[in-house]
Fold each of these.
Amino acid sequence: MSEAPVILITGASSGIGAATAKLFGLRGYRVVLAARRLERLQELEQEIEEAGGEALSVDTDLNDLDQIQALVKKTLKEYGQVDVLLNNAGFGRTKWLEELDPQKDINLQIQVNLNAVIQMTRALLPHMIERKAGHIINMGSMAGFVATPTYTVYAATKHGVRGFADALRREVGVWGIKVSTIYPGGVKTEFGSHTEAKRKTGITTPKSLQLSAEDVAQTVWSVSQRPRRTVIIPWVLRLGAWLDFFAPWLNDWIIERTFTRPERGL
Ligand SMILES: NC(=O)c1ccc[n+]([C@@H]2O[C@H](COP(=O)([O-])OP(=O)(O)OC[C@H]3O[C@@H](n4cnc5c(N)ncnc54)[C@H](OP(=O)(O)O)[C@@H]3O)[C@@H](O)[C@H]2O)c1
C-alpha cells in the first residue's frame, strides 16, 4: 500500500474543495473526494491522476448519516488512513429569517454546515485516536465571527463550527491530534448561486477583499503544514471580528442604517 498521506475533503465537487483537492493531489497526497455530484468528482479524479496524483471519488450526501459512515468506511478500506480531514462542504441561504423555508433552508443548512461537520469528525475520530495523529481542518466563515442580517442560520452554523472546533481541540490535543478552522471572507465560487439572495442595496464584498478558491486552498495547505487554531483571511477582516467583539453596538448601528433599513424599504 502507498505511504502517501491522505486528505479527505467534503464538498470536493466545486469551489474551495475542488481547488484544495487539486493542490493536495499535486503535492503528493492521496485525495478522497466527497460530494453528491459524482460526475464532477470523477472528472476531478481524472485530472488529479493525469497530473500524477491519486484520488478516490465517493458519492456522498451529507444529509444522510449512513452515507457519512459509509464514506469513512470506504476511505479506510481503500487507503487505510486519513491524515487530514477537511470539513468543507456547506451552503448559505441568505434571506430574511421569516422567508426561509423551515426544511430546505433551515434544517438542511444546519445539517450540512454543522451537524455533518460533527458527524464526519465523530466517525473518523476513533481512527485518529488509535494512530495518535491526524488533523481536522474546518471551513468556517467570517460569519462565524460577525453575524450579519440575512445570514441568521448560516451565521448560527458557522458560530457552531467555531465552538465545536475550539472544544474538540481541547479534547484531542492530548493525543497530538490538531484542530484548525479557517474563516474566509467572500470567495468567488458557486456559493453565490445557491444563496437565493435578492438585494436592493447591491452591497457585496469589495473586489479588493474577494478571495479565489485557489487562495483558500493555499491557506488550507499552509495550515496543514503549520497547524494553527484560527486563521481569518484576508488578514484585514480580523479588524471586523475585533470591532464586533469590543463594540457590537457600533456594528448594530452601522448595519441597520446601511443594510437593514434600505433592504427592507424603511
Ligand atoms: N464562497 C464564499 O464566499 C465562502 C466564504 C466563507 C466560507 N465559505 C465556506 O466554504 C465552504 C465551501 O464553499 P464554496 O464557496 O466552495 O461553495 P461551492 O462551490 O458551492 O461548494 C460547496 C460544496 O459543498 C457541497 N455540498 C453541498 N451540500 C451538500 C450535501 N448535502 N452533501 C454533500 N456535499 C454537499 C457541494 O457539492 P454537491 O453539490 O456536489 O453535493 C460543493 O462541493 C462552505 O463551507 C462555505 O460555507 C464560502
Amino acid sequence: MASSKAHHATGWAAGVIAAALAVRHGMHGPFYLWTWLAFAAGLAGATAPDWLEVAWWSRKKRLWITHRTATHWGIGWLAALFFSWQAMTHHPVAAVAFGFACGGVMHLLADWPNPLGVPWIIGRHSLNLWNSGHCDLIVVAASWAGAWFVLSHVWMHGATPLVFLRQLL
Ligand SMILES: [Zn+2]
C-alpha cells in the first residue's frame, strides 16, 4: 500500500470530491447534512480497502482476506461509485455510499503505482513507478490537484470553490 499517511491525506481529497459531486447532484438536506456525511464517508473509504481485509474484530487482527485482493477490486469499487451515484436520485442516503466509493477508488489509485499493483479487473496491474511509502508527496499532491479540478469544474458557472466553501460554512 501507499503508506497509511498517504491514504489518509488522499482521503481528505476524496471526501472533498465526494461532497462537491453530491452537492452538484442536489444533495443538500438540513445543514448540508448529506454533504458532510459524503465527506466523512470519503475519508473512511480511502482507508477501507486496507482495514476491510484485517479481521479487526478479532484479537490477533490477522488478515482474513489476502492483501490487495477482494477489497482492492477495481470493478467492485467503480460499480459502487456508479450505482450509488444513480441511487442518489432516489434517496440522499446514497450520498454516503457514494462518498465511501469515492474514497475506495482514491485508495486504489494511490496503491496503483506500487510494484504490487491493484487488481482492477482480473490479475494485478501495477504502474511500477515507485515502492510503497515512496513519493507519497506526489500521490497526495495529485489527489489534491484532482479535488481542485473537480471543485472548479463543478462550479464552472461563475462560482468558484471559495464560494462553495462559504456556502458550506
Ligand atoms: Zn491498499
